[in-house]
Specification:
The structure holds two protein chains of two kinds. Helix content of chain A is about 45%, strand content about 10%. Chain A contains eleven helices and four strands; from the N terminus they run αααααββααααββαα. Chain A is of the alpha/beta class. A two-stranded parallel sheet of chain A has the order 1-4. A two-stranded parallel sheet of chain A has the order 2-3. Chain A is globular. The N terminus of chain A is likely disordered. Chain A has one domain: Nitrile hydratase alpha /Thiocyanate hydrolase gamma (Nitrile Hydratase, Chain A), CATH 3.90.330.10. Chain B has a five-stranded antiparallel sheet with strand order 4-3-2-1-5. The chains are: A alpha/beta, B mainly beta. Chains A and B meet through strand 3 of A and strand 2, strand 3, helix 2 and strand 4 of B. Strand 3 of chain A pairs parallel with strand 4 of chain B.
């Protein structure tokens, strides 16, 4: 969870205070939290999400398993949503010819960090969070993404414990690309749903 | 505790405006939606945030037509909602 509307420095001060208390009482070592966070963030990158997408584009069986139960499919690529911290349920939602998905967390900034890396600043902005649920088509246009009018949009608001990731559509003319080449096409914005790929 | 709702059930969200923390966003209060699936079981944040005992309860993905939430829009919004936020409005089909 991220900011809840209060000033970010207020939250940071609270986190530092809790951290100091935990250290003073000997519950965590001074370097322990830093090490855990560094190890977590070193593995948390949108390249993980991109690998999942490329594999799903190439392997119909994997695609079905990923959409049915992402948590069970991730280990096939050596991935997890936990990365040393608590495991989270992941739900992957697939774009098709006539449906498009966008993710948001209107209440704070929930995001599948392990698979997409730290979230972009705009994802946490009040503007994106409040507007994408109301007018996703307008917000996508601002990203330069003009979605066809007859494509139905579903906005996934991560209000509870699940994290969502979008499986974009495979672009036309990519038939000769291998898994690494396909993964290189996938963008973080595509995994959020504000870009086509 | 078994799940009270199942996919396809029509549900209504609570219209309440609680004084405490909740994960039912204001824009989805008192709204009619359809259960998509069960996401898992988690303690109710409304209780947890107040230090009350909170047993794990089902959380559902619930789909809402945007027009029902905002009075306009041709899209859908899916929210993950704790069972305590929902009541059954209707169930179609067998069983």
């Amino acid at each position: 969870m991220g900011d809840h509307g209060g000033p970010a420095h207020g939250l940071a001060a609270r986190v530092r205070r809790v951290e100091a208390l935990l250290e003073r009482r000997g519950l965590v070592g001074a370097a322990e939290l830093d090490r855990a966070l560094e190890a977590y963030l070193a593995r948390a990158t949108p390249a993980n999400g991109a690998r999942l997408v490329a594999r799903a584009w190439l392997d119909e069986g994997f695609r079905s398993r990923l959409l049915a139960d992402a948590g069970a499919a991730l280990p096939e690529l050596g991935l997890s949503t936990g990365g040393g911290i608590a495991e989270q349920r992941l739900k992957v939602v697939a774009n098709t010819e006539d449906t498009h998905n966008v993710i948001v967390c209107t209440l704070c900034s929930c995001y599948p960090v392990a698979l997409l890396g730290p979230s972009p600043t705009w994802y946490k902005s009040e503007s994106y969070r409040s507007r994408v649920v109301r007018d996703p088509r307008g917000v996508l246009r601002e990203f330069g993404f003009a979605l066809d009018q007859d494509v139905e949009i579903t906005v996934w608001d991560a209000t509870a414990e699940s994290r969502y990731m979008v499986l974009p559509r495979r672009p036309a003319g990519t038939g000769d690309l291998g898994e690494a080449g396909l993964a290189a096409l996938v963008t973080r914005n595509g995994l959020i749903g504000v870009a086509p790929v | 505790m078994a799940e009270r709702f199942r996919p396809g059930d029509r549900v209504l969200t609570s219209p309440a405006d609680p004084a405490h923390h909740t994960r039912l966003p204001r824009y989805a209060r008192g709204a009619a939606g359809t259960v998509v699936e069960v996401e898992g079981r988690y303690p109710l944040p409304d209780d947890r945030s107040r230090g009350l005992p909170a047993e794990a309860e089902p959380v559902y993905a619930v789909r809402f037509p945007a027009a029902g939430l905002f009075g306009a829009g041709d899209h859908q919004v899916v929210l993950a909602l704790w069972e305590s936020y929902l009541r059954l409005e209707g169930r179609s089909g067998r069983g």
